[in-house]
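Here is one chain, start to finish.
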Amino acid sequence: MPKSGKEQASWQRLLPLGFELFGAVLGFSLLGFWIDRRYDTRPWGLLVCVVLGLVGGLYNLIRVSLSVLNPPHDPKAGDSGDDRQR
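Its structure:
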């Protein structure tokens, strides 16, 4: 059975996250390498920038993943917002 458009859109939002994480780490690594060569701070520039790239990339990965798993509540959908069981 084909998936609904909403389901398909949610998993398609997750596809590029690996590339975004890789890009963040690679970009910050290159920046750290440049800082080390420019200011002769080996290896601290590279280490700090790799950590910043990992933190930023993982933050983005977790943020987007959680937004796909828990979409915002739509008050117009007719739900009272009271999810407690009676």
